[in-house]
Amino acid sequence: MPLLLGCIADDFTGATDLCNMLVRYGMRTIQLFEVPPNGTIGEEVDAVTVALKIRTCPVAEARTQALAALARLRRAGARQFLFKYCSTFDSTGEGNIGPVADALLDALGADLTVVCPAFPETGRTVYKGHLFVGDRLLSDTHMRTHPLTPMTDSNLLRVLGRQTPHRVGLVDYAVVRRGEGAIRARLAELRAAGVRHAITDVLHDAHLMAIGHACADLRLVTGGSGIAMGLPDNFRRAGLLGENPEAARLPSIAGKEAVLAGSCSAATLEQIRVFAARRPVRALDPLELARGFDPAEIVAWAKPHLAEGPVLVHASAPPEKVKAVQAALGRERAGEIVERAMAAIARGLVEAGVRRLVVAGGETAGAVCTALGIRGLRIGPQIDPGVPATVSLGEPLLALALKSGNFGRPDFFLEAFRVMP
Ligand code: ADP
Fold first, then answer.
1. Which residue's CA is the closest to the ligand 1 atom numbered 27?
2. Which terminus, N or C, of the chain has the lesser number of Cβ atoms within 10 Å?
3. Residue 329 alpha carbon, nearest atom of ligand 1
4. Which residue lies with its CA nearest to atom 19 of ligand 1?
5. By mean pLDDT, which of 165-174, 238-247, 251-260 is the weakest?
6. What is the value of pTM for the model shown?
7. How would residue 1 be classed by pLDDT, with cut points 50, 70 and 90?
8. Residue 13: its pLDDT value, please?
9. DSSP category for residue 121
10. Does residue 391 have its Cβ closer than 6 Å to ligand 1?
11. How far is the CA of 191 from the centre of ligand 1 (A)?
12. How far is residue 144 from each of residues 45, 140, 266, measured CA to CA in Å?
């Protein structure tokens, strides 16, 4: 079977989250850092997600990287394309969601796409164009103080309106709840009115499903992983996709276990606290890292504990501490210092026999996988909403759980190892 869906994700754990959704709905899926230039995937799959790191880079670079990935996915034969961003719409005043979506639409010669960050399973809903996390508006949550993409406005029409010169419209809840036909009609109406980005209200999974089905004929779909829920059905209806009950099967991987956390989200801080009650934890201070750092020392600390079970190394800190570090080092430099440290520690831990690794934080996971020379991941069963167990493609085979900061239950760092193959 040829490749059906070609996806471009703006960060690493976002890509994994999307793959998780596609596998759950029966598409065999892998995540790659890069599609080979000739478009040869070399695996029997229905969907490929290219994990870029373009959430916070300069706009021009984000555009260039997304277009390069698109060109290769087209060469690989993909029929439809999906641009995946975070369900909390993580972006800055300049972008990069609007500019990347515009560039992809231009390249595909398409005139309209949906903008659907909602993911009700993890509490992200959209009503009248406003993004909620649980009971609160996005701008009233911890996302207000995110280290890289602080979100201080919950009105997606306004947020996206600042990122694109094109018209932004709304597929209102009143339309969405009437189902696929009504959504299709509304999209046609918005298209006729010159709207290029159609934000979709979503309160339940049934809405995501209906929106997904209504997107069957769009060349480009954009959103959080929730938008992928209805897409596999479209390929099935067209006779292009089978049932695939084995879509989530992974080889089993034995070895030592470790957790690396570079996310400063509230969820991650709580997960560290729960883990620390059971297993050894080592905290890194970015200000000390900036003065000089030896990863071998951390690995030497970990080694005696690894025989007994997992250890955790983190730089995660509450908002006031992150602010102080950023004031001293600069936001980007602080992030880079931590990411570089995590990457070096990951390499050391794998040399010490770790083969089962949990990483918290999108940017952090990207940095760790790059340092470990991981070309791609085969996606397996779900650990928690948005986070699947995965196994690396190529040697050494590693079992990995890569968690976007906000995701996972409080005991995630212990429970993940039970689901990993
Ligand atoms: P999330 O998925 O929660 O957004 P990320 O890893 O994508 O997590 O982003 C968190 C960023 O914060 C990373 O760049 C990381 O290096 C940086 N960071 C981690 N700890 C600290 C800290 N104590 N102070 C400042 N920045 C930090």
1. 335
2. N
3. 25
4. 262
5. 238-247
6. 0.87
7. low
8. 85
9. G
10. no
11. 39
12. 38, 7, 12
Place of tokens 């698109």: 70
Choose the residue to mutate in 282, 293, 338 for probing ligand 1, maximizing ligand atoms within 8 Å of C-beta: 338
Residue found by looking up tokens 């906000």 in the block = 406
Ligand 1: does its nearest atom lie under 6 Å from the Cβ of 31?
Answer: no
Token duo for residue 359 = 């990483």
Kindly state if the Cβ of 326 falls inside 6 Å of ligand 1: yes
Are 250 and 391 contacting, i.e. CB atoms less than 8 angstroms apart? Answer: yes
User: Ligand 1: distance of its center to the CA of 316 in Å?
Assistant: 7
Say if ligand 1 is within 6 A of residue 96 CB. Answer: no
10 lines ligand 1 (CB under 6 A): no
Beta bridge partner(s), residue 400: 357, 390
**What is the signed CA dihedral for 37, 404, 133, 323, rounded to 10 degrees?**
-110
- Residue 293 has, within 13 A of its CA and on its CB side, a CA count of 20
The alpha carbon of 265 and the centre of ligand 1 are apart by a number of angstroms equal to 8
Query: Is 43 a residue whose pLDDT tops 90?
Result: no
- Measured in Å, residue 40 CA sits from the centre of ligand 1 at 34
Given a cut of 70, whether residue 421 has pLDDT beyond it is yes
Q: Which amino acid is at 373?
A: G
Q: Is the pLDDT of residue 336 over 80?
A: yes
Going from the Cα of 147 to the center of ligand 1, the distance in angstroms, rounded, reads 6
pLDDT digits (tens, 9 = 90+) for 97-138: 999 999 999 999 999 999 999 999 889 999 999 999 999 999
Top mutation candidate among 268, 364, 402, 407 for ligand 1, by most atoms within 8 Å of CB: 364
Q: Which residues contact 222 (CB under 8 A, 6 or more apart)?
A: 82, 83, 84, 85, 97, 101, 113, 114, 115, 116, 197
Percent of the chain with pLDDT over 70: 100
Averaged pLDDT score across all residues of the chain:
95
Task: List the domains of the chain with CATH numbers.
Answer: 5-237 (3.40.50.10840), 256-419 (3.40.980.20)
Residue 415 predicted with pLDDT over 70: yes
Give the CA dihedral 282, 286, 289, 291, nearest 10 degrees: -140
CA separation, residue 421 to residues 18, 246, 257, 333, 364 (Å): 20, 14, 12, 36, 22
